Amino acid sequence: MEYCIIICNSTQHMLNADKILKENSIKTELIPAPAEYGSVCSTAIKIDAYNVDVAEKLLKINSVSVKGIYPYKIRKLDGLLEIINKGLNRDIKAVLEKVEKGIELTEDDIVLLLSADGDENLSSIYKAADEMRKAVVGDVVDIRAAIEFSNICRKNCLYCGLRRDNLTVDRYRMDVNEIVETAKELKQMGIKTVILQSGEDPWYTEDKIIEIIRKIKKETNMRITLSIGERTEEEYQHFREAGANNFLLKIETTNREIFKNIHPDDDFDYRVKCSQWLRGNGYINGNGNIIGLPGQTARDIARDILFFKEMGIHMVGIGPFVPAAGTPLETYPHGSVDMTLKTVAVTRLVLKNVFIPATTALATVDKEAQVKALMAGANTIMLISTPSKYRNRYRIYSNKNMVDLKTAYMAIVKAGRKLPPYINKEYIKEIV
């Protein structure tokens, strides 16, 4: 079956278009917009090609501003098998042949890649993912920065060092002015996107979050990512209207039993509903999983990846489980770096045009793992930019590695990738 994608001239027009098409019984799928069509709207609407004429008329009648309607291109990697190892496993080769031809991978294909071992097999998977990354998002590594503004949390997740019942944590909250001033410092560095991250702290009401968003927008005009957990649909809508651009809310695992075990006071269906609300409000939607949770299998991870695809996720954060002191899982071993890297690579092969960070958790387990992730499909690094007096108190896991601009610069250089042009060159001179 052939498909087309509709690119609108704004997020609001995209949401309106999607609603109109659905109301007229046209099946739609929201997907990350291919990079070649620019950034006027980060989400494209995918429809069956035979519906194009009707869709075009409906959108024109309803005054929806459309940049264009284009054929949906199958992303192929011509010549892939010529540049990867010749001695790789036959079954893995067959899956990579599907990648080369642009054929969608099945759940069993994904499980096969995630279960691969041996240097030749792994290096071939990583090479394929790196080629896909290069084809869809290029060589520049996006650098973003996080302000961890509160380590107080109402939730009691078993794996998280910020959990409500962890009495070893020295709690803090940053006030609005501290947060805004820190964002202004990041603006001077050249950072374009600030991530506002916290535990689920009810002290930061809807009004307080809106005040923070508006002040950062007024003072810096930076893009804002929120990572503040589960809220109501109305709150997500109001944060978006106030100026928030992105939202990161990880599912952690799509295995309901594991989810229930590690989230004693969470509801899986509500978490999914939150992601749907975020998508419906036009956020650049971030999600992700933890690799190495108790009881997790390669098939669980495969289903995570397919969930991200189904949800039209734009950014996928993938990190190994890292134990945190004062939690029920503090003696549990950390997740496998190899499995995490395989997940990064396979996520790139399946989702293609998405942001995938080389996560801080990877750097905590293995100081070279961020470089390895960049060479296996990742294209983003998040700096830890919390003020120093709070930084060591934000311990979602123990022995958290510090990722600053120097760390990011060194990883990018070692991976043979390019710095983003927006970083202030004066800061690079200080590092070099």
Written description of the protein model:
This is Radical SAM domain protein. It holds the Pfam family Se_S_carrier. One of its GO terms (biological process) is sulfur compound biosynthetic process. By secondary structure, this protein is α/β, with parallel strands linked by helices. The protein has two domains: 3-71, Alpha-Beta Plaits (2-Layer Sandwich); 137-431, TIM Barrel (Alpha-Beta Barrel), CATH 3.20.20. 43% of the residues lie in helices and 15% in strands. The chain has helices spanning 11-23, 52-61, 80-83, 90-101, 107-114, 119-137, 176-189, 206-220, 233-242, 256-262, 268-280, 298-310, 337-351, 360-365, 369-374, 388-391, 405-414, 425-431, and strands at 3-8, 29-32, 43-48, 66-71, 142-150, 193-198, 223-227, 246-248, 284-291, 315-320, 380-384. The strands form two sheets. Strands 10-9-8-7-6-5-11 form a seven-stranded parallel β-sheet. The longest helix has 19 residues, at 119-137. The radius of gyration is 21 Å and the shape is globular.
